[in-house]
Amino acid sequence: MTAQPYAYRRQELVEPDWTRLPGWKAVTREQWESAQWQRVNCVKNVRQLRAVLGDLVDERFYTDLEDDQRRLATMSMLLPPQMINTMVPTGRFDTEAFYADPIRRYMLPVASDRHPVWPSHPYASRDSLHEHDMWVAEGLTHRYPTKVLAELLPTCPQYCGHCTRMDLVGNSTPAVDKLKLTLKPVDRYDAMIGYLKAQPGVRDVVVSGGDVANVPWRNLESFLMRLLDIGTIRDIRLATKALAGLPQHWLQPDVVEGLERVARTAARRGVNLAIHTHVNHVQSLTPLVAKAAQTALEVGVRDVRNQGVLLRGVNATSEDLLDLCFGLQGEAGILPYYFYMCDMIPNAEHWRVAVWQAQQLQHDIMGYLPGYATPRIVCDVPFVGKRWVHMVTEYDRERGISYWTKNYRTSIEGDDLDRRYAFHDPIDTLPEAGQRWWERELATV
Ligand code: SF4
């Protein structure tokens, strides 16, 4: 057969050797596999990063990182050792390799990563999807007719630089003062359950945050059992990047036993219980991640699916996407489900891709994976929701403005279903004429 644009070869998963990093030279396997050890040893600041990496990385990087933290970061730093260990997993660990690493690029952004002229799109905003505007109870977003998003808490075991919920999730940074939840968790959960009991048209609940791995298990189990008592709820999806970022959490005996109780109850009641995780690059897949996914399936969770984010410099090539999807599907027992285009949040332009690039990537990954495991690349259009990238109704390529329609109403709109909603490509990806147009537009504001 003649050469193909993508050549598949099975790659079995390997846990990178954490003792290659100076700060973890003496860390035992028992420590490494303990969720508590991972949480206690998370890296939250430059000093702690230095203690782990020592002089593998030179001063230039740390200064660049501090600069980003001071001026540009929308998320505070929080990295479990598991995640750091997937950066530069093989080969020489030095400053250049660290700068170039795909996991580093989105989990530990530095000032020189950001676009020097257009760090933010002029239409970028905090809460770009208007989830907060659609709250029907604190943390409960009712955007689609039959589905809701329940944000149980505003924290995660790891913070991603491109987090779309940067408005709410994580600690405040010098650039972003975060929105605060005001109700006590118990009152917030009561209000959510009360709303869902009164809305028989809602059948699907994404239980999220933040990350459900940060909800004490007893509280999460009680919330899930209350959801399962509502006969009209037929799908429950648990959102947790920790499955990949801190798989040790999902392997703790009390969590596994609790998950089994919830899965058994869901199966008895005919409810589809799934875990949705967030992996952006094949390097994140290690044997421990596969074990966590496999364990969830063994105790009765119906499916573990991946919702990655399409990010320039991280995974926005067909080869990176296919490597990741084959790793998920063939090695980790995780279904490649979606790739979202990165949302229009502040300081994210260097990560975002244009709609036409996403369409090209969708085209290029077709036909290699089983059809049911071929992910859809979607654009989450403000006020609309997820649209496959080929569903654009009109597209001004010069100015990078795409227009989208929808087929349902949300709680914050009137009757008009004919309206078109705009989404914007990163300005640096536009032809010269389009870039000049935006410059003139902004000069007149
Ligand atoms: S895990 Fe999800 S919610 Fe948490 S910081 Fe990352 S993208 Fe945001």
From TrEMBL:
Gene3D superfamilies documented for this protein: Aldolase class I (3.20.20.70)
Stored InterPro entries: Aldolase_TIM, Lys_aminomutase/Glu_NH3_mut, rSAM_sf
One of the record's GO molecular function terms: 4 iron, 4 sulfur cluster binding
Assigned keywords, A-Z: 4Fe-4S, Iron, Iron-sulfur, Metal-binding
Keyword 4Fe-4S: yes
PANTHER family reported for this sequence: L-LYSINE 2,3-AMINOMUTASE AQ_1632-RELATED, LYSINE 2,3-AMINOMUTASE-RELATED
Protein name: Lysine 2,3-aminomutase
Species per Swiss-Prot/TrEMBL record: Virgisporangium ochraceum
